[in-house]
Design brief:
The structure holds 2 protein chains of 2 kinds. By secondary structure, chain A is mainly alpha-helical. Chain A has one domain: ABC transporter involved in vitamin B12 uptake, BtuC (Orthogonal Bundle), CATH 1.10.3470. Chain A is built from 12 helices and 2 strands. Chain A has a two-stranded antiparallel sheet with strand order 1-2. In chain A, helix 1 packs across helix 10, helix 2 runs antiparallel to helix 3 and helix 11 packs antiparallel against helix 12. The longest helix of chain A is centred in the last third of the chain and has 28 residues. By secondary structure, chain B is mainly alpha-helical. Chain B has a single domain, classed as ABC transporter involved in vitamin B12 uptake, BtuC (Orthogonal Bundle), CATH 1.10.3470. Chain B has 14 helices and no strands. Chain B is globular. Classes of the chains: A mainly alpha, B mainly alpha. At the A-B interface, helix 4, helix 10 and helix 12 of A face helix 6, helix 11 and helix 13 of B.
């Protein structure tokens, strides 16, 4: 049973983790991205369509990445060039994209809510099936797919990218010390547009993972608030890659054990509340601590 | 003086109509792409939402919840408090009102209505007092706290209507129906337009008077314009924040009560299809002004009520309404090129 839970946790963590890593980079550059949900959903739809048309999970993932990045970039323009409030624009984007997806489904495919297409290629497993024989970790290793590997690779790479590369330093300056960025002559708007596109691309991949892991179909409720849970994760992890990843893992574990918790008598609605309540708690703790430090 | 006021009115009218017009143009392009005639579709929309007394009533009925959620949003936005938690307070207030209206003895008759309204306002006010207090006391970012509280409100109410408050007869996801005596009267049967609409208009008017003629209302506006200046004038900024959050919650809760007692007569999982967020779009469109918000609420009400018929009479999917709403929200907060060009010419 432990093996099963481990494997399920890892798989269920991936979409949250991908979106959270993108959102984290975005927030480090000064943009709180409320529209991750929209890009996850768009990525999932595109992944299903492309996977069915080409039979290639790779092309499907790339298409999801591209669509997410383009939506993210357009979204960034409303903020950087149009001076839109990022929260309202993000909420508006979620409504707009959900509407656009519903529109496309009924106009192009004549369905509402769910899209089933033939021959959808699912994500392959990275390691040979034989690894499942390894005790405890075997099942988890066998379940690894390319996007999961990519997600964790990005967790490992991000601390370095943010701390030691030119791009990382510049984007952090843009978000944390705008006056420094200006003094350096950095174009803050370009940098924010780039990071929002990155957040969109990662969210698109998150959508591809949701759609192509086991079910191979698209549903309007597929993202299930994961964009907001990712937001919760990087708020809770204070925009640091490893702590954020650990929070994502915890949410993935929660997701994987949900069915078991339900049979143990916990109502599912209340389990679903936990990530949001945690963010609230973390937010309060952080602010209280800040306040005390200021007072001291 | 009259000139200035006229110019200001013109400016706010433009602020209201430009985002809506841009959104309609983009939606029109979408319609052309799928091979529909946008003018015909928009004509049908206008016809279906304003073409007869019955249709106007149905439009106003759809606009009713938005009147409340728009004021609830505006009262905070104008004080510079970025409350996005109206949706949650609407749910909490709606459930509180419905609970009072089915759980108390039916013998109370129409006194059930004021009891339910007060319960809803109290529940909503307490719900948003919490993030308001956190903001005033500990500077907890109100955007994230209220956003999270929306999910928590949806989870708690969802749990209650699937568990402890589940109706024994109606299957799942809903409470028992409220007592007949607690129904808000219908204004124009057979349409669903109910007395909640009048309450909503009254709330709008009171909000306008509050902003202009009460110390708390004026202080709220000053805090929104310039926090430091307000503090220097001796206004309690944290007190104002808590006040506007509580008022926002009470109004949103009242909106939930109106929806529960006037429209649905029970609380279910699908109680609000996002009235809190649409209300935010309305508040932004109307620039927190009562008249602007009434116009905005009616426009969105028209979209919602005509959207269903549009699907019956043409091949255009209902989701077009969501597309327009999302675009309006985005364009309402963007500085569109038009006003910016003008300012530059003046400089």
């Amino acid at each position: 049973m432990l093996e099963q839970i481990l494997a399920a946790s890892i798989v269920l963590t991936t979409p949250i983790l991908l979106a959270a890593m993108g959102g984290l980079v975005n927030r480090q550059s000064g943009i709180v991205n409320i529209g991750l949900e929209a890009k996850i959903l768009a990525g999932a739809l595109v992944a299903v369509i492309v996977s069915s048309a080409t039979g290639s999970w790779l092309l499907a993932s790339l298409a999801a990445l591209a669509v997410g990045a383009v939506i993210g970039w357009l979204f960034a323009l409303t903020i950087t060039r149009g001076n839109a409030n990022m929260i309202v624009a993000g909420l508006g984007l979620n409504v707009l994209v959900a509407g656009a997806i519903g529109f496309i489904l009924s106009w192009q495919y004549g369905t509402s809510g769910t899209l089933r297409l033939p021959d959808v290629a699912l994500l392959p497993h990275v390691l040979p099936a034989a690894v499942a024989e390894i005790p405890v970790l075997g099942r988890m290793l066998a379940a690894l797919d390319p996007l999961t590997v990519l997600a964790w690779a990005s967790v490992a790479a991000l601390p370095f990218v943010l701390a030691d590369t030119r791009f990382g330093l510049r984007l952090r300056a843009t978000g944390n010390a705008p006056q420094v960025a200006r003094a350096l002559g950095l174009d803050a708007r370009r940098i924010q547009e780039a990071t929002t596109a990155i957040a969109g691309g990662f969210s698109g991949l998150a959508g591809a993972h949701l759609a192509l892991t086991s079910i191979g179909l698209f549903n309007e409720g597929l993202s299930g608030g994961r964009g907001f849970i990712a937001l919760a994760a990087f708020y809770f992890g204070r925009d640091r890659p490893w702590p954020t990843a650990m929070v994502c893992l915890m949410f993935g574990f929660l997701d994987a054990t949900q069915i078991r918790l339900q049979t143990a008598g916990l109502p599912p609605k209340l389990i679903g509340m936990i990530p949001y309540a945690m963010v609230l708690a973390a937010l309060i703790l952080a602010s209280v601590r800040n306040k005390k430090r200021k007072a001291a | 003086m009259a000139d200035i006021r006229f110019a200001a009115m013109l400016a706010s009218l433009r602020a209201l109509l430009v985002p809506f017009a841009v959104a309609l143009i983009l939606a029109g392009i979408v319609l052309i792409v799928i091979g529909e005639n946008p003018l015909a579709i928009f004509g049908l929309l206008a016809e279906e939402s304003f073409g007869s007394a019955r249709r106007i009533a149905s439009t106003l009925s759809s606009a009713t919840p938005l009147l409340f959620t728009a004021v609830a949003t505006a009262i905070c936005f104008r004080a510079g408090v970025f409350n996005v938690g109206v949706e949650g307070a609407f749910l909490v207030g709606g459930l509180a009102a419905v609970f009072v209206a089915f759980a108390l003895p039916a013998g109370l008759g129409i006194t059930l209505i004021p009891l339910a309204l007060v319960a809803a306002m109290a529940a909503g006010a307490i719900w948003l007092w919490f993030p308001g207090w956190l903001l005033a006391r500990f500077e907890v970012d109100e955007v994230v706290s209220t956003l999270m509280l929306n999910f928590i409100a949806a989870a708690i109410t969802g749990y209650l209507v699937n568990g402890p408050l589940l109706s024994a007869s109606a299957g799942n996801n809903m409470t028992p129906a409220i007592h007949d005596a607690a129904h808000l009267p219908r204004l124009m049967p057979p349409s669903t337009l109910h007395a909640g609409f009048l309450i909503g208009i009254a709330v709008m008017v009171l909000y306008g008077l509050w902003c202009r003629y009460t110390p708390a209302g004026v202080e709220g506006g000053l805090v929104g314009l310039n926090r430091r200046f307000a503090r220097a004038m001796g206004i309690s900024v944290s007190g104002t924040m808590i006040t506007v959050m509580c008022l926002s919650g009470a109004i949103a809760g009242l909106g939930g009560a109106s929806h529960g007692l006037g429209q649905l007569f029970r609380f279910s999982d699908a109680f609000s299809p996002g009235y809190g967020f649409t209300g935010m779009a309305v508040a932004l469109l109307g620039r927190n002004h009562p008249v602007g918000m009434i116009v905005g609420a009616v426009l969105f009400g028209a979209l919602a009520s005509a959207g269903t018929t549009i699907q019956l009479f043409s091949s255009v999917p209902l989701d077009l309404v969501d597309i327009i709403q999302g675009l309006v929200m985005i364009f309402a907060v963007m500085e569109l090129a038009l006003p910016r060009l003008r300012r530059r010419r003046h400089a």
